[in-house]
Amino acid sequence: MIVYGVMTVCALVVVFADQQVPRKMRPIPVFRDSPPAGLTLPNNATAIRENIVDTFSCENRIYGYYADVDNDCQIFHVCMPQNRGAIRWSFICPESTVFNQATFVCTWENDSIPCEESEQYYGLNEEFGKEEPQEPEGTENPQSPEEATYNPEEYPPNNEVPVTPFYGNTRGRGKKNRGGKSYSSEGTTKFPSSTENNDE
User: Domain Chitin-binding type-2: where (predicted)?
Assistant: First the structure.
């Protein structure tokens, strides 16, 4: 039990220590259990594509999603670079769809870029993990304080706003509140609205 607690504390220290290291200087994780060589597709993959070839390599590729042009983009791969080599996970798109390298999803073939042009879009993987530059402080609300003040001329006068009396919680009790006291609508003032004709 003590060993478990020590391991947990060590793991937390490692996690918090990694967050303080700049992103570019963090070590690339090494997975001890590498997936088996070759494509690891579902058993029914050949029902979607009969002649599957295993020619795609993740060597010298950054982390990202890659359409497999040799398989007519019906298969795509996720590459994870390692200290030695890379790990590749392979997936097959549902029947009648292809992997669209421009959008990173499986789409109908006529909605996708041409498969042979997919390699031109591999550079989009560089956008993964990219952080947007933060705006300098003070630019969140560009409106000056003078413009943000209340101007009563922009709002209608109170006598033009219709008033609806509130009778409290009236669930199934009509105009009675929970205490059983009734309220009548007598004595409430009706203000003329701006849409009523006052000439009558």
Answer: 55-117
